[in-house]
Specification:
Layout (H helix, E strand, L loop, with lengths): L1 E6 L4 H14 L3 E5 L24 H20 L3 E5 L2 E3 L3 H8 L7 E3 L7 E7 L5 E6 L6 E4 L1 H13 L4 H6 L6 E4 L4 E3 L3 H4 L23 H25 L2 E3 L13
């Protein structure tokens, strides 16, 4: 399975780390130039970026646009791809897992990561691989497998209501989504939390821009609040409907030491 790595040209240390991981695992990969606030299309004032549940940072818009570029690549290739942000740390069992799921036809998306928040999961393992049905995720877009149908569904959703990349993924409810158990990826900034070797220090590029405030009055404020409330209702309904369990997905135990 080919790997797509989203990376900003200025983040050379992150790219060196990702290339070292790819070499360690022997994976076929390609770099996707990350969209920046300066190269964002459509521009930050386009209505598509103002239809989410809260105002977005321009860096969040850019990251979503970067993932959209990756989804287009998956659709064009008509084959599943592992999509990684350039701060994803990968577990030793990743290549074996990729081999198990590469030819699946009943899956649209597989989350590989854990990030400290509980997810709503099914109770029965998929017969082909150690993963559970993912009914509701909450955060994280650093490491996941997108199949062509799933990529198209996510792209369509983002084009209707541009939002944070992880929120778009976790609210594309038409997908058949799964969660790898245990998780096979974490992000660099939480390695210490999980006892995972951290090859380089990093900080969030999203948080480099201040979070915009929610408007206090007017139709825009009402729209944001209404969408937020509806989003929470839908998440609660999905947990009840599918009788899923809210669990914290534990990380894998074996993580290689990557030398740069």
């Amino acid at each position: 399975m080919k790997v797509l790595i989203i990376n900003m040209a200025t983040a050379t240390d992150r790219m060196a780390f990702m290339a070292a991981q790819m070499d360690h695992f022997g994976l076929d990969w390609a770099r996707i130039e990350a969209v920046t606030p300066e190269t964002l299309t459509p521009r930050a004032d386009d209505p598509v970026w103002h239809r989410w549940q809260r105002p977005l940072r321009v860096t969040e818009m850019a990251l979503c646009a970067s993932h959209m570029a990756a989804w287009r690549a998956v659709i064009a290739a008509d084959a599943p791809h592992l999509i990684l942000e350039d701060d994803a740390v990968l577990a030793a069992d990743l290549p074996a897992f990729l081999a198990l799921v590469a030819e699946l036809r009943d899956v649209d998306h597989i989350s590989l990561e854990t990030r400290g928040r509980k997810k709503v999961l099914g109770r029965v393992l998929h017969p082909a691989a150690p993963m559970l049905r993912l009914w509701q995720d909450r955060t994280g877009s650093a490491a996941y497998i997108a199949y062509p149908k799933g990529a198209q569904l996510m792209l369509d959703h983002a084009q209707r209501a541009g939002g944070p990349s992880d929120a778009i993924i976790s609210s594309t409810y038409a997908m058949h989504s799964y969660q790898a158990v245990p998780a096979l990826a974490v992000q660099l900034d939480i390695c210490a939390q999980y006892g995972v070797p951290q090859a380089i220090k990093t900080k969030s590029l999203i948080d480099a821009v201040d979070k915009p405030r929610l408007p206090a009055h007017g139709m825009a404020a009402l729209g944001f609040r209404a969408r937020r409330i509806w989003g929470q209702v839908v998440m609660g309904w999905r947990q009840l409907r599918h009788r899923g369990s809210r669990v914290h997905v534990a990380p894998a135990r074996d993580w290689p030491e990557i030398s740069l």
